[in-house]
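Data deposition worksheet. Section B asks for the primary sequence of the deposited chain exactly as it was used as input, without tags or linkers unless they were present during the calculation. Section C holds the resulting structure in token form. Section D is free text for depositor observations; keep each observation to a single sentence. Incomplete worksheets are returned to the depositor.
Section A, Depositor: J.P.
Section B:
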Amino acid sequence: AVNMEMGLWVKDGASTWQTLVAATRSAAELCGVGDDLGTVEAGKLADLIVVRDNPLDDIDNLRKLALVFKEGRLVADHREEAK
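Section C:
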């Protein structure tokens, strides 16, 4: 659902970069968890996804999951599904 909403932001004129920042860093800061989440930095929790194609090229590429990490641990590996 979140990636669908981000697609709407881009469709309505936000840049892909603005949309990704709003959904990650800005959202974490707004929720008061910016010290732990929202960006990829040493000491943060490392809740993140790795996608197969660049989301800056097309926001819908966020749907093409390759890996999912929760607190730095790999919890889902979808790389074989892409073949």
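Section D:
The chain has two helices and three strands.
Residues 16-30 form the longest helix (15 residues).
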